[in-house]
């Protein structure tokens, strides 16, 4: 069943819509010179000059909105600027609006995307009247179903990450995954608690066994068995205390978001299934709480992983790579055509690139190029970091094949990726994304809280890889 078009975008121009005119800084003087004295005076009074993000609401003689001017500075970039239109959606009163200025290929989609994403709100725990929507006439050439699909995927990530662990532990995350699978006609399976040991998922069990909310592996499959296999793995640490290597309270405050990788995996799966892409999709989510109890795994423990490799626990707060190792090993058994994992894995990734640019790792130059190209067209920034093999020396262990973290603390995002790579030995097309899954403050189209980062870029890359879209 296709995703419905969001109520804040309409595909049909309406006679009552208000025109939005885009003006560069260089074009604004000529446009104002040709306008009425009233318009020139109004613009001068309010300081409108066409600078980037300048917004001017022009009234008519009755006081109603006649049109809206949006300054674009030197002009919209070739890839567009969703934030500019998100800002419009935030500042304009309720009503229906239509972009009257011409847009280049791709700009209409990003304009509508920014407009839609601005109107997201997480209201599960707050009563209040919903704000009236700002409706945008869909720009020419924009695929309404595709837009709705991307907006719905982003909203799913935000909703899942924003939900506190009391309502989004491993059991509840599995329930959300089951609902998604059933809605799309996919198969759903979960291996819970000691069943993980019976089915050889020892690291997932070790990390999650201290919690009363039992650890589990969520497994969704969909699509034609003969189609190219695409497997998506998502880190589902529903809360991370750090384990016995306990985090300080400041470091624990946002750890409900440590299942952000799982949220991305489910959202990507939803988008792929809704689009009916010609792939055999599998979603694997190790869902755990890294809690503290008498059952906690300990620093110094050695765990024999599903792959058969032994790992010494140097730090119980490096748990994400442990649970991912078993899921990646399972995925690798099938040698899919494409294997992607999302994980809120390291603080080092944020130190390197900040919260907005998401690092990714792959040994495939073709995949890297494809993801970077999709990233630009989606205004969804990613940056490739190296799988620099000499740094694996930092994970040496005197008693096991390697450790789960190193003493130096340097190149943490890279050493984490190198750890994961040891469990992907048969699949050449693998991408690991170390995502933040959070907005620290409110910005246009990006409210404070859970966020889908690199999701659009990965989705567009997959669409282009398995269809004729360019």
Automatic annotation (TrEMBL):
SUPFAM superfamilies: Zn-dependent exopeptidases
InterPro entries linked to this entry: Leucine_aapep/pepB, Macro_dom-like, Peptidase_M17_C, Peptidase_M17_N_1
Stretches that traverse the bilayer: none
Residue span, Cytosol aminopeptidase domain: 315-322
Any one GO molecular-function label of the UniProt entry: metalloaminopeptidase activity
The organism's place on the tree of life at top rank: Bacteria
Single GO BP term: proteolysis
Pfam family, one: Peptidase_M17
Keywords: Aminopeptidase, Hydrolase, Manganese, Protease
GO cellular component: cytoplasm
Similarity remark: Belongs to the peptidase M17 family.
Name of this protein: Leucyl aminopeptidase family protein
Organism listed in the record: Govanella unica
């Amino acid at each position: 069943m296709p995703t419905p078009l969001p109520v804040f975008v309409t595909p049909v121009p309406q006679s009552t819509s208000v025109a939005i005119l885009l003006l560069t800084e260089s074009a604004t003087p000529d446009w104002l010179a040709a306008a009425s004295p009233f318009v020139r005076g109004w613009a001068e009074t309010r300081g409108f000059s066409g600078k980037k993000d300048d917004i001017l609401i022009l009234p008519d003689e009755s006081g109603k909105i006649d049109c809206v001017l949006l300054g674009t500075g030197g002009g919209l970039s070739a890839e567009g600027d969703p934030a500019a239109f998100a800002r419009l959606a935030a500042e304009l009163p309720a009503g229906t609006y239509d972009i009257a200025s011409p847009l280049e290929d791709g700009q209409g989609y990003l304009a509508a995307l920014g407009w839609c994403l601005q109107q997201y709100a997480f209201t599960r725990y707050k009563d209040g009247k919903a704000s009236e929507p700002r409706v945008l006439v869909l720009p020419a050439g924009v695929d309404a179903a595709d837009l709705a699909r991307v907006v719905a995927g982003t909203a799913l990530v935000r909703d899942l990450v924003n939900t506190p662990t009391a309502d989004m532990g491993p059991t509840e995350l599995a329930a959300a995954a089951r609902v998604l699978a059933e809605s799309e006609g996919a198969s759903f399976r979960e291996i819970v608690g000691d069943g993980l040991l019976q089915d050889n998922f020892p690291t997932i069990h070790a990390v999650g066994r201290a919690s009363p909310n039992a650890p589990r592996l969520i497994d969704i499959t969909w699509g034609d068995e003969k189609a190219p296999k695409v497997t998506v793995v998502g880190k589902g640490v529903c809360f991370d205390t750090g384990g016995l290597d306990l985090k300080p309270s400041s470091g624990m405050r946002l750890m409900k978001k440590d299942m952000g990788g799982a949220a991305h995996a489910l959202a990507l799966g939803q988008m792929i299934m809704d689009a009916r892409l010609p792939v055999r999709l599998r979603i694997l989510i190790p869902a755990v709480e890294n809690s503290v109890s008498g059952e906690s795994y300990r620093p110094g423990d050695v765990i024999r992983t599903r792959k058969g490799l032994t790992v010494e626990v140097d730090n119980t707060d490096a748990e994400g790579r442990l649970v991912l190792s078993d899921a990646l090993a399972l995925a690798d058994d099938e040698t899919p055509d494409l294997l992607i994992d999302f994980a809120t894995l390291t603080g080092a990734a944020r130190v390197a690139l900040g919260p907005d640019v998401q690092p990714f790792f792959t040994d495939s130059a073709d995949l890297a190029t494809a993801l970077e190209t999709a990233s630009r067209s989606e205004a969804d920034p990613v940056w490739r970091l190296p799988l620099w093999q000499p740094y694996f020396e930092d994970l040496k262990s005197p008693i096991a094949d390697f450790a789960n973290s190193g003493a130096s603390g340097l190149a943490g995002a890279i050493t984490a990726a190198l750890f994961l790579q040891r469990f992907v030995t048969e699949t050449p097309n693998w991408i690991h994304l170390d995502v933040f899954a959070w907005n620290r403050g409110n910005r246009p189209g990006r409210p404070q809280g859970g966020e889908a980062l690199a999701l659009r870029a990965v989705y567009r890359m997959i669409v282009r890889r398995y269809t004729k879209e360019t």
